[in-house]
Specification:
The complex is a heterodimer. By secondary structure, chain A is mainly alpha-helical. In chain A, 84% of the residues lie in helices and 0% in strands. Classes of the chains: A mainly alpha, B mainly alpha. Chain B: GO terms for molecular function: cytochrome bo3 ubiquinol oxidase activity; proton transmembrane transporter activity.
Chain lengths: 171, 105
């Protein structure tokens, strides 16, 4: 809930800053619809495969839990790879967060989401380790359920990001 | 519901339904943005509506929140977060755009 409030305010900041490009590049010149679609697909699929892991957890099927967690983490890493490529490409062409208010807002909002996904990926790795070492004990199952809340929440934030940042940006 | 107080889903069906609906809604938004088939303002409205529906789809099919099975206090907490977000978003936009308007006038 509190995380939702943080993102809501970062969205507000971004929208307020939208017009303040200081003569620098706008979203229309910077955003790639193909890359945003790729990021969207990876994150949506990873949310679904985490769901499959949760179903395997309910069935106490340890190897399937591990399989789906590994798939989820791979999709998460793919998302981060695309996003890092996008950020470094923008910074390389002089459109870093220091270029304009609009880009500061963009990097703060999308970067905070990327940071959350990075922490989520780390958390999934930790849980893979716990499932391997401790098995599906009750505390491990409870932690996995909480990790699931976090991971699905991040996909909801991403829906808002592509609907507020990327799609209106390229129009 | 298990000891952790979180809902337990035993079937993959809701996830597949959620995935299907999310793909359709995402495709509508990206398709309109890519082709520019509709006027800009109409496209923005369609994207906004699709986003709200998609968030509800995610809440329902991925986080299993529903009015019948989710405990009352969890729904109240969710509604309270939504209220806070509306106050802070609405307040920020009101103040900032009013300021912008006065500075440009």
């Amino acid at each position: 809930m509190s995380d939702g409030v943080i993102f809501a305010l970062l969205f507000a900041t971004y929208v307020v800053m939208l017009g303040n490009t200081a003569g620098g590049p706008t979203g229309k010149e910077l955003f790639s619809l193909e890359r945003a679609a790729g990021e969207t697909a990876l994150l949506l699929l990873s949310s679904t495969t985490f769901g499959f892991a949760a179903v395997a957890l309910a069935a106490a099927d340890r190897s399937r839990v591990l399989l789906w967690l590994v798939v989820t983490v791979a999709l998460g890493l793919g998302f981060l790879y695309l996003e890092f490529g996008e950020f470094s490409g923008m910074i390389a062409q002089g459109a870093g967060p220091d270029r304009s208010g609009f880009l500061s807002g963009f990097f703060t909002l999308v970067g905070t989401h990327g940071l959350h996904v990075s922490i989520g990926v780390l958390w999934i790795f930790v849980m893979i380790g716990q499932v391997l070492i401790k098995g599906l004990t009750r505390p491990v199952a409870s932690r996995l359920a909480r990790l699931g809340l976090f991971w699905h929440f991040l996909d909801i934030i991403w829906v808002a990001i592509f609907s507020v940042v990327y799609l209106p940006g390229v129009l | 519901m298990d000891a952790s107080g979180l809902p337990v889903e035993r079937s993959i069906t809701p996830y597949l339904i959620g995935l299907g609906l999310a793909v359709v809604l995402t495709a509508i938004s990206f398709g309109l943005a890519a082709t520019g088939a509709l006027p800009r303002s109409t496209t923005l409205i369609v994207i906004a509506v699709a986003a709200v529906i998609q968030v509800l789809v995610h809440l329902r099919f991925f986080l299993h929140i529903s009015f019948s099975t989710t405990p009352r206090e969890n729904l109240i907490a969710l509604a309270f977060a939504a209220l806070l977000i509306c106050i802070m978003l609405g307040g920020s936009f009101w103040i900032m755009f009013d300021l912008y308007h006065r500075m440009m006038a």
